[in-house]
Input
Amino acid sequence: MSILVNKNSKIVVQGFTGTEGTFHATQMIEFGTNIVAGVTPGKGGTNHLNCPIFNTVADSVKKTGANVSIIFVPPAFAADAIMEATEAGIELIVCITEGIPVQDMVQVKHYLKGKNTRLIGPNCPGVITADECKVGIMPGFIFKKGRIGIVSKSGTLTYEAADQVAKVGLGISTAVGIGGDPIIGTTTKDAVELFMNDNETDAIVLIGEIGGGMEAEAAHWIKSTGNKKPVVGFIAGQTAPPGRRMGHAGAIVGGEDDTAIAKMKIMRECGIHVVSSPADIGKKMAELIDKK
Amino acid sequence: MNLHEYQAKELLKKFNVPVQEGVACSSVHEAEEAYRQIKTQFGSPFAVVKAQIHAGGRGKGTIKETGINGVKVGKSIDDITEFSQKILGGTLVTIQTGAAGKVVNKILVTQDMYYDGPSERKEFYLSILLDRSKGQNVIIYSTEGGMNIEEIAHNTPEKIFKEWVNPSGGLLSFQARKIAFNLGLSGEAFKNCVKFVTNLYKAYVNLDCGMLEINPLFKAADDKIVAVDCKMNIDDNALIRHSDLASMSDTNEEDPTEVEAGKYNLNFVKLDGNVGCMVNGAGLAMATMDMIKLSGGEPANFLDVGGSANAQTVEAGFKIILKDPAVKAILINIFGGIVRCDRVAQGVIDAYKNMGNINVPIIVRLQGTNADQAKKIIDESGLKVQSAILLSEAADLVKKAVA
Output
């Protein structure tokens, strides 16, 4: 079944007519993603890229049956956009926007509690199910169809992993960029759980980075549920100095537990195949698949 | 973005959070004026001179040139003159600054809070920050103030309390009371503490703080509750709605190369190694640094050029990295997705030619869209640039360069 998105997903683009929205929506349509609507308040009733524009997400859902939203709205208005999509009953929201204030995300996280909406991101490259559906900004051609799932906090490192996986003759079921902010909707563990329950995924690449405790949480969960599928892990930032923010808002070493070394240790203890060099992700995956 | 103590205190006062009062000064003359004013205002000859730098441990730290501590209590105009002469313009080295220290451009001359009175003086610790795992703000506090929180956590973990705040209701009255009770306060001090914590939380949220630490949170001998010191960090993402705060940024506190990189919209962090790197994407940039280390080098920097790696950004990156004489090689690692590798390759060559003479080996790894064409462009350029497509190949080239 792959996870999160497939050829039946109907996508609405929030922030459709802006530069980013237009560029990436065009790329998504070329990939074959089924974009059914766009939302730009005030431009409802017009068309863009041959898709109808609505003033509200609720209108787009009512008229087109959209069930997945992708957000390109500027950071000051992105939290509002996420909550609007949630209220409209969208099942999956992918928020690409980088630079949302942390306190806004505190509100969003609280708002999402108890709702049936899943949020991916913000500050992420999105989700792609190879050969089926791309809801994001990643270059689609790198993701060759296969049975490996990728969950990653980083964009280009996801591409790197997908490329290495393809180079060893394997391919991708779904790749999920969960984002590099301190507060994100879907955690590493959430994504890993989806892959573990997906009958089209045989193994998982788990890419993390310094800061926070999500990788450790995922590792403990993987162990506690019996290491059902092999997982290759990599943590970026082994050489990052403490207390400095490394590009991503969430990539900062705060204490002893969120260094790369600490995370790698916990992951190894939980049976994850951790590689020290990012160049070894594909190679390690090939070894594990051969053994099976 | 970090703020100085004096800036943070000014902001707190707008939210009716009582602080140890003071005047920020840039010269000895200003400090003397400030002392006279404080002496009259508070009726005490005691006053404190505090160096203003973005680092903790100032009281125990020393000024390199004069050997004096970064925080000094004086009891006469002569003391204040002497202290400000010895601190202003000096280089303060503390446990947090590293051996290089930081130049003190401003001092804060403040009232002395440690006066006598009917009740006992006490120092507490209180900070507000984000609990990432819960997605909520948390107030961390302790009866043991005045020292490093890591020390308290290590020595007496039972004396650290945490209060999580529900985002919908904000800090509730019973929570503020609980904090004051746990700090062992009663009477006027209790009431003052409840008000202090309530207003401080409002300041934290309304100013979009990333972290707000009051250490010590002080109970004076007359039951006043005040912030004697304050560390405040503002969420960079939130500066879009705080133009007034953005102007409080002190670039003197930052590495000059990092400030310059910021002008080109490059995300740069200076490190102490010998191999420079230029990468698109933060995660891949960190991973590239790790790979440099595994290849026997040490990363000289973190540099994320973002989504548009063109001739201008590459040239700016070269210039910034080459300011560091320790750099022996530069690795450019670009995964071209939306950006085409052949364009980036041309950008590298143009930048290289523009720069004239680059004396360190350049290794360019371009993968993704049009990677093969890119490699051809680099290889046929006749320049001293080595090319790679696979990450492992780039690692081998780094290994050779630093050997």
